[in-house]
């Protein structure tokens, strides 16, 4: 889910792979559906007016802001690459859900979809999740738009509505998501999420409750901090209890029994009430996922008016970095055998003691410039630096902001830390990259250099 981004989600038929039927998914389809997109076929820019991605051409307009660097990541499908650490985490979660939740026919309750296209409509990514038109999460500064109507999904919640509309009431959706963001060791413009959804009928929710025959899912009440206006308190409490129990079991299965868990109230547009889950791992509290009771308006619009449910979203990189003690998110994109071979294990639950690669020295350069009078976004500069410097840039930090007392012009100074994860960089190659960033910032962002 977009849980951490601002907490939003949606989808549409165009987001489903050919293997996923939009309607009438039979019971026997409750299995993992995976269809990888070859990376060498992923993206092509035939001319300046269109972007060709996954075999379809998208006309560019004033919203188009996807860079070639980002397009080159589409179709890599790290979560489906066997023995990759993200694949291991995905398989662990999937294995847990398959074995823990079995239906009356002996088949898994949850279906898994990990091959859905990352190209979605704006309606899928935002509107279907009830994200207001003026919500900050829609900004160009935070997303990768192909044009005004299509984008690279910002969260796997973009598929939530379509999968519910197809008739599913319990599923996991996994995939790569794209966001313009800060540059440091825990943020990368492409990462991987898992979305979980479970819906309950009145009978399913109350059948195990003593004297539960007279309990109802819905009422005409008022929205409070604890429930939606249409939900009964009994229904919300049971859904919330089930959700927290499911996720606590999952985390204990991954990190071990005795794991400390706590819940923090928060806000997501598509769930209410909403929570963030934190775990105490090796003495440090860490946020690992967002979750909540699904907004009934969303559930109703997808055709499940007689059901109530929960949803959660977690980041695979987040779990893998904690579980394997991986210090830098860029390593997930490494092709270095010293990194990859550590995760070739006979079974997905084997304990792995990650051995860090040699720590190469950083090279630090600053860049200062006056901001243009028109709108400027730090994410525009981060994206430009990432496009030119790629994974050689470990971190970019705004270290100084100055307003001229007379002209009122604003100056930013950014510190760029260059460090290759696999070798030592030379000052000459860093200088060339840094100079290219300076020149591009002037040309593309309209800044006035103070180099």
Automatic annotation (TrEMBL):
Per UniProt, residues of the Aminoacyl-transfer RNA synthetases class-II family profile domain are 175-346
| SMART domains in UniProt | FDX-ACB
Q: Name one GO molecular function term.
A: tRNA binding
Q: Where is the protein situated, by its record's location annotation?
A: Mitochondrion matrix
Which GO biological-process labels does this protein carry? phenylalanyl-tRNA aminoacylation
Keyword GTP-binding on this protein? no
Q: Please list the residue ranges annotated as the FDX-ACB domain.
A: 358-450
Highest rank taxon of the organism: Eukaryota
Q: What class of enzyme is it?
A: ligase
* Statement: the UniProt record of this protein carries the keyword ATP-binding: yes
Q: Per the UniProt record, which EC number(s) apply here? A: 6.1.1.20
What Gene3D superfamilies does the database record attribute to this sequence? Bira Bifunctional Protein, Domain 2 (3.30.930.10), Ferrodoxin-fold anticodon-binding domain (3.30.70.380)
Could you list this entry's UniProt keywords, alphabetically sorted. Acetylation, Aminoacyl-tRNA synthetase, ATP-binding, Ligase, Mitochondrion, Nucleotide-binding, Protein biosynthesis, Transit peptide
Please write the reaction equations for the catalytic activity of this protein: tRNA(Phe) + L-phenylalanine + ATP = L-phenylalanyl-tRNA(Phe) + AMP + diphosphate + H(+)
Q: Name one GO cellular component term.
A: mitochondrial matrix
**What Pfam families does the entry give?**
FDX-ACB (PF03147), tRNA-synt_2d (PF01409)
**What PANTHER family does UniProt report for this protein, alphabetically?**
PHENYLALANINE--TRNA LIGASE, MITOCHONDRIAL, PHENYLALANYL-TRNA SYNTHETASE
Family membership: Belongs to the class-II aminoacyl-tRNA synthetase family.
Could you describe the subunit structure of this protein?
Monomer.
**What function does this protein fulfil?**
Is responsible for the charging of tRNA(Phe) with phenylalanine in mitochondrial translation. To a lesser extent, also catalyzes direct attachment of m-Tyr (an oxidized version of Phe) to tRNA(Phe), thereby opening the way for delivery of the misacylated tRNA to the ribosome and incorporation of ROS-damaged amino acid into proteins.
- The entry's protein name is Phenylalanine--tRNA ligase, mitochondrial
